[in-house]
Amino acid sequence: MGVALYRVDDRLVHGQVVIGWGRPLGVRFIALVDPAVRASSWEQDLYRMAVPDGVEVFFADVAEAITLLPEWEADRRAGVVITGDLETMAALYTARPDLVNRINLGGIHHRADRTERLRYLYLAPEEEALLRRLDAAGAELSAQDLPTTPAVPLDEILP
After folding, report:
1. 99: phi > 0 → left, psi -120 to 50 → alpha, else beta; which?
2. Regions of the chain with pLDDT less than 70
3. What single-letter DSSP state applies at residue 59?
4. Shortest CA distance to 27 belongs to which of 51, 61, 11, 10?
5. Residue 145, burial from CB neighbour count under 10 angstroms (0-12, 13-18, 19+)
6. Where are the alpha helices (DSSP H) in 17-109?
7. What are phi and psi of 34, to 5 degrees?
8. Which residues pair with residue 113 across a beta bridge?
C-alpha cells in the first residue's frame, strides 16, 4: 500500500487527518515531517495522543524523511505523510519527485500576508510562486480538505 496521501496542513495531526482521511484510506501510519516537532519529545507526545491505537506515528526532519520515503512507500500498510508548510513538502518533492508526485493542499490557514483562495487555503505571494514552480516541475497539486469533497486543481486555485 505505502503512502496514500502527501498532505500539507499547518495543523499537522488532528481529527480531520485521523478521522476524515485516516478511516477512508485505512491509514496505519502517519509520518509527520517537521524539524521542530522532531526535536521536541513533549510535542511528539501531544501528537501521539491525537492518533488512535493501531496507527503508528513517525517524526522526522526533512533529511530523515528523504531517507525514509522509500521505506514508507514500500510499507504494506497505508500511510500519510504530513508537513506543516509548503517549503517542507517542496523539499521532499525536489529530492524524490518519483515518490512525492501528488500533493494535497489540505489546510494552510490565515496569516496577515496571505490571501484566501479557499475557505481552508490561504496563500502568500511566495507560496503561490512555489506552487507554480512545483506545478511546472511536474507535481500534481490539488486542494482538498476531506476525501468526501471534490479536489480543486491548482489551475482553479491560481488561475
Report:
1. alpha
2. none
3. E
4. 51
5. buried
6. 22-25, 35-38, 41-49, 62-74, 86-95
7. -160, 115
8. none
121-124-126 Cα angle (round to 5): 125
Here the cell at position 84 is 506543516
Instruction: For residue 77, give the nearest of 55, 98, 97, 94 by alpha carbon.
Output: 55
Q: Which residue has the cell 500500500?
A: 1
pTM flag (> 0.85): yes
pLDDT for 52 equals 92
Within 8 A by CB and 6+ apart from 3, the residues are 31, 69, 72, 73, 75, 79, 80, 81, 99
Question: Which residue type is seen at 27?
Answer: V
Q: Which domains does the chain have, with CATH numbers?
A: 2-157 (3.40.35.10)
CA-CA distances (angstroms) from residue 135 to 34, 50, 57, 105? 23, 32, 29, 13
